Amino acid sequence: MTTRRTRPAPRPPEGTPPRAELARQARAVLADAVRIAHWAAGTPGPGTAAPLAAHALERAATALELSPAQVRAGWDRARLAGLVELHGDTARPGWRLRAWDRDDSAVLRGWVALFDAWSLVHAAPEGIEAGAVAEAVEAVPQVLSLLQLSAGSVTVPALLDLLGQRVAELHEERCEVPLGPGRTAPAVSAAPAETAADQNAATAGPARSADLNALLLDWALEGLAAVGALTLGKGHATLTPLGNWAVWVKLEQICVAAQSPAGNIEQSAADMLLGCARLTPGPARDEYRAWLAARTVGSAVAELLAVARGEDALLRGLAFEALRVVGAPAEPEVRAVLAEPSLRPYALLWLAEYEGNDPDDAQDVLSREEATWLWVDTAAAVADHGETGLLVRHLDSAVQGTVPALLDEVRAVGHPRTVQVLVALAAAHPDPALAKAVRRAAFQVHTGGA
After folding, report:
1. What is the crossing angle of helices 269-276 and 281-293, to 10°?
2. Which of 21, 264, 293, 367 has a 20 to 30 Å separation from 45 between CA atoms?
3. 209 burial via Cβ count (<10 Å: 0-12, 13-18, 19+)
4. Taking the model in full, what pTM does it have?
5. Distances (CA, A) of 200 to 92, 182, 206, 207, 214
6. What pLDDT, in 10s, does the model give residues 197-206?
7. Where are the alpha helices (DSSP H) in 174-268?
């Protein structure tokens, strides 16, 4: 048994509209995206892939009475919000689109997915190196926190000062200390004589940095305004009710994690998953959300997939459970691992559920070989971390229906843990005849016999 202190459900800040009103505002932000998603989902044949093909763009603009720029922007938002899913050259309605008019939670999750992807909605200024853009994106949560805690407008100079401080902290954390007064650069041999122009360029560094931060802040504020998270006035910015609610939710998740008995917010993905292994699904999902809230989506997904590639089958399954909490932002990375045999069954199930299939029917997307591989992998997790009785009961979940058929296909599937799983199953099973057959199969796999 795992004991956890429970805390009452947190209340949103005073003045936060009810969820129904927040959902209405989210529907308004995504109105064009929903129209385009319905159009794309109802358009037969190819031509609606990303980026939107020129002839499809023209057809959509004519049919929806929108400008091509509005169609292109709405299409991008529809994809980022999970309203459409791409299968080759064909667009299909996402589950959120099907639930859009009746499920406020689906609407808010779709808008939050768009909010998290603000840096993709509004293209970064040209001519700025990717590292500087990434630093600005990493610093934006602090800017949003200041806006949320201020409960009103904040001047752009104050936001710029905070952005500069956070970028400097990121440099310090990475030991990227800029040269300044009293510091000297390493000597280089055969250096040409320094000209007055070179000296002027060297001393212009801090000014250039401030100008760059100002440019990146303007870009970030415009991007957040484009997704409906804030409004911009003359020299100040204010969170919208939607933006205020979203930032509060993310801050609350971090607070929950900080109060976690296991301290999962500070743990690596592997340690966090192990800490959640004996929790029931609801509390485990709460832990996943808290851990994810303290990290950028990209780094969290990469860390979870790295754990899934490891040798521990239990962590592999739990990693994909955590990825289910990530949702739409993880879809490209999950789809990319379909070519990896050890992750393919998990990725197929994840994608099937993401695309709206009932979890009980999701197994239908697996081939017989993939289902057998997954059965062995799950058995390995049980053998390493579970009870012997659970391993015996795991036999009933095999798709083969009979033990001889299962053993034949298990021997052929080539899972690296096949021998250990069969040995553990033989030791645990109470039927001597069946245990003997399983041991024989283990020996044949081990020796390479038929």
Report:
1. 160
2. 367
3. middle
4. 0.56
5. 57, 18, 12, 11, 21
6. 344 333 344 4
7. 196-203, 205-226, 241-258
